[in-house]
């Protein structure tokens, strides 16, 4: 019912907090689908803004949060059709924007998933999903937090 890339994105976002990989997974799917789906673009923006926010790049996060909010606002029906409460997601993003503008420390969020089929699909794919989705926790793994830096180091070594 839901695309595998979408499920993978949600697992990476909630369990690993690997926002860099969330971006990679969803961008691949978005390009594959012809770049027409605004929800996929919105999810890419959300992943990248949280990547910047966690790294205290407030300027980068500030630029992206307004784009993400605008994007989600324009595709609310699509967001809802994919099992996420668009109004609650917009509220979460607005609260995040206020925190970014005040340069408050990063806090992980959980997508307000309201479709039990989506929740079950995620939990059946990875039994850790419910734990991390219901109680958003930070992943302090330096590799995940600064992944783009390590990725370029790996490329240079080749």
TrEMBL record:
Transmembrane segments: none annotated. It comes from the Bacteria. InterPro entries: DUF309, TTHA0068_sf. Coiled coil: none annotated. PANTHER family: EXPRESSED PROTEIN. This is DUF309 domain-containing protein. It comes from Fervidibacillus halotolerans.
């Amino acid at each position: 019912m839901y695309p595998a890339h979408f499920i993978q994105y949600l697992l990476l976002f909630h369990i690993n907090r690997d926002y860099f990989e969330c971006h990679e997974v969803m961008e691949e799917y978005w390009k594959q689908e012809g770049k027409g789906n605004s929800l996929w673009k919105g999810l890419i923006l959300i992943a990248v803004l949280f990547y910047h926010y966690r790294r205290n790049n407030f300027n980068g996060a500030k630029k992206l949060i307004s784009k993400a909010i605008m994007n989600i606002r324009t595709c609310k029906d699509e967001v809802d059709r994919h099992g996420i409460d668009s109004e609650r997601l917009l509220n979460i993003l607005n609260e995040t924007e206020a925190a970014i503008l005040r340069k408050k420390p990063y806090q992980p969020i959980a997508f307000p998933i309201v479709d039990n089929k989506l929740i079950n699909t995620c939990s059946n794919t990875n039994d850790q999903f419910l734990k991390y989705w219901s109680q958003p926790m930070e992943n302090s793994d330096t590799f995940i937090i600064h992944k783009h830096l390590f990725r370029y180091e790996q490329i240079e070594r080749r």
